[in-house]
């Protein structure tokens, strides 16, 4: 991994006070003095190119991370060389928490596109958080959100029907975009269909067919990686197998 750039140079580009993601990372009402104290800890890394690793399996815990630009995937590779995707991380979402228990990362974080991250050295962060109760509460909140995403992944994998897994994935991604203040009904997928398949425990062809079926049923509109949710109710029902007792009745598209 490349060394973080010196903090004084980073500050010429952007500080926490100027960051558009500030309210996702920091508690509401944090005062200027506390913000300045945190700003002395946060380090901004040089840009990572698409496919570049931020950390690898076995690396020691040095920091936790927030993507300020771009997105990341966390993966493990089995002895046969097959990659399994554990999660996707959008701007403003804290990641790197897998190393907190053992002190070593149990997976690899890879940039899905050209990206930048804020790096929060863990030892210094813990010290400052102990002095700033509001920051400590915020850290617990985002750690809880990370645990929720892990639970959501287990929920996805427990679904027997591939169609449910795909619909649940899109519905969950939409909610995450809503949370970070991005359009939640019309967005660009940062990951490929193959990466989605590795996350959902499916094969690429099944994911492609699932997207096409949702498109044909009028639930979503797909153009390459761009997804527009046309019928949010039908998507929610498809994600839950019509759990309200009624089968979803999506609008079929007219065929030319």
UniProtKB/TrEMBL annotation:
The keyword Transcription regulation applies. This is CRP-like protein Clp. It holds the Pfam family cNMP_binding. Residues 160-233 form the HTH crp-type domain. SMART domains: cNMP, HTH_CRP. InterPro entries: cNMP-bd_dom, cNMP-bd_dom_sf, Env_Response_Regulators, HTH_CRP, RmlC-like_jellyroll, WH-like_DNA-bd_sf, WH_DNA-bd_sf. PROSITE patterns: CNMP_BINDING_3, HTH_CRP_2. It is found in: Cytoplasm. The lineage of its organism: Bacteria, Pseudomonadati, Pseudomonadota, Gammaproteobacteria, Lysobacterales. Residues 26-110 form the Cyclic nucleotide-binding domain. GO terms for cellular component: cytosol. GO terms for molecular function: catalytic activity; DNA binding; DNA-binding transcription factor activity. Homodimer. It comes from Thermomonas fusca. Gene3D superfamilies: Jelly Rolls, Winged helix-like DNA-binding domain superfamily/Winged helix DNA-binding domain. Keywords: Activator, Allosteric enzyme, c-di-GMP, DNA-binding, Repressor, Transcription, Transcription regulation, Virulence.
């Amino acid at each position: 991994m490349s060394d973080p750039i010196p903090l004084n140079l980073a500050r010429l580009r952007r500080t926490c006070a100027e960051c558009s993601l500030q309210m996702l990372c920091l508690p509401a009402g944090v005062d200027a003095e506390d913000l300045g104290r945190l700003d002395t800890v946060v380090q901004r890394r040089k840009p990572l190119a698409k496919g570049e690793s931020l950390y690898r399996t076995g690396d020691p815990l040095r920091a936790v991370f927030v993507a300020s630009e771009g997105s990341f995937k966390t993966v493990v590779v089995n002895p046969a060389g097959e990659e399994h995707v554990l999660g996707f991380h959008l701007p403003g979402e804290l990641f790197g928490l897998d190393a907190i228990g053992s002190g070593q990362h149990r997976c690899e974080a890879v940039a899905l596109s050209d990206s930048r991250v804020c790096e929060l050295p863990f030892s210094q962060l813990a010290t400052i958080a102990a002095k700033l109760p509001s920051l400590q509460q915020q850290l617990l909140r985002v750690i809880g959100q990370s645990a929720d995403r892990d639970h959501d992944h287990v929920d996805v994998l427990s679904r027997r029907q591939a169609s449910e897994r795909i619909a649940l994935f899109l519905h969950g991604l939409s909610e995450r975009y809503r949370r970070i203040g991005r359009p939640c009904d019309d967005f660009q997928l940062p990951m490929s269909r193959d990466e989605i398949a590795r996350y959902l425990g499916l094969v690429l062809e099944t994911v492609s067919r699932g997207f096409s079926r949702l498109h044909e049923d009028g639930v979503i509109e797909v153009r390459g990686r761009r997804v527009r949710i046309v019928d949010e109710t039908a998507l929610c029902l498809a994600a839950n197998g019509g759990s309200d007792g009624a089968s979803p009745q999506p609008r079929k598209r007219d065929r030319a």
